[in-house]
Amino acid sequence: MIEAKLAAKSRADHKTKIRISEQIAVGSEEILIIGGPCSVESLEQMEQVASHLALAPVQVLRGGAYKPRTSPYSFQGLGDAGLKILAQTSQRYGIPTVTEVMSIPQIEAVVAHADLLQIGSRNMHNFELLKAVGKTRKPIILKRGLAATIEEFVFAAEYILSQGNPQVILCERGIRSFDTYTRNVLDLGAVVACKQMTHLPVIVDPSHAAGKRELVASLARAAIAAGADGLAIECHPEPSRSMSDARQALSLPEMVELVRSLRPVAAAVGRRVAIAPTQCQLSAA
Ligand code: PEP
Ligand code: MN
Q1: Number of the ligand closest to the Cα of 232
Q2: Which ligand is nearest to the CA of 211?
Q3: Is residue 102 within 8 Å of 112, Cβ to Cβ?
Q4: Ligand 1 probe mutation, 61, 67, 69, 208, most atoms within 8 A of CB
Q5: Is the CB of residue 157 below 6 angstroms from any atom belonging to ligand 1?
Q6: d(CA 47, CA 49)
Q7: Tell me: domain 18-68+75-273, CATH 3.30.450.20, correct?
Q8: Of 45, 55, 133, 195, which has the highest C-beta tally within 10 A?
């Protein structure tokens, strides 16, 4: 048994619910759906995503401004300009946002522009960064390291919790294995184990696990059936033109359809997907 003092359940029904806005929380009956492009590319792109996804509904808008890319020659994200676009879109559409923070000096700007901070897989072992985000008051989505054991994953959460920030959301996003057909291997066993061991909400990112758009919806449904508290999914107005992770991006109609398909699965495991607002409610807002 892992000796995580703060992440571990104190009793069987111990669950932490993390509030994201007045209407939105994760870790309760309702499933949290996060959607958006891999990278923020332009204001127009983010507005198209936000307006379309309100129909799904997607409750949190994602988009990377600082991008951890395998090659230093690939698009590295719009940086500070990307954060501004994210914040503008959020204000205009009234949707909370999440974006990755890659280093300690970026924390201040990301805290000022986004509602949740994401620690990416490549930084799950960056203990100084974990401690630094542990001193903020924003919810943190902690992604599992590319080759991190479940124990290392939970201890990474413990680093954040130990600094006084109780709002940690674990995110399983696939781990490296020998098979290259999928980008990574989605470890649903880890979702079940983390839910049993810890009181923290656990979400799943099937996009980075699959690496191929045609696998994403089925993995998303499997994640909900396995007890995940939410999903983080990449989608784009023109998937093939995404500046990063084009191969795994869903189109916006595919994203809406995916959310619709989750409803019966969620109901079968005693969970719920938020009801989409009608066009009429949207135009009144
Ligand atoms: C991302 O979510 O944009 C991302 C880079 O994911 P990961 O850290 O899981 O690779
Ligand atoms: Mn991506």
Answers
A1: 1
A2: 2
A3: no
A4: 208
A5: no
A6: 5
A7: no
A8: 133
The secondary element (H helix, E strand) that includes residue 191 is helix 188-197
* Residue bearing the CA closest to ligand 1, atom 8: 120
pTM tops 0.90: yes
Domain layout of the chain by residue ranges: 18-68+75-273
Rounded CA-CA distance 281/277 in Å is 6
Print pLDDT tens along the chain (285 aa).
Answer: 568 999 999 999 999 999 999 999 999 999 999 999 999 999 999 999 999 998 899 999 999 999 999 999 999 999 999 999 999 999 999 999 999 999 999 999 999 999 999 999 999 999 999 999 999 999 999 999 999 999 999 999 999 999 999 999 999 999 999 999 999 999 999 999 999 999 999 999 999 999 999 999 999 999 999 999 999 999 999 999 999 999 999 999 999 999 999 999 999 999 999 987 755 556 655
Other C-beta atoms closer than 10 Å to the C-beta of 40 total: 30
Cβ of 121 below 6 Å from ligand 1: yes
Is the CB of 277 within 6 Å of ligand 1? no
The DSSP output letter for 240 is G
Cβ(62) – ligand 1 distance below 6 Å: no
Tell me if 138 CB under 6 Å of ligand 1. no
Nearest one of 115, 113, 156 to 134, comparing CA atoms: 156
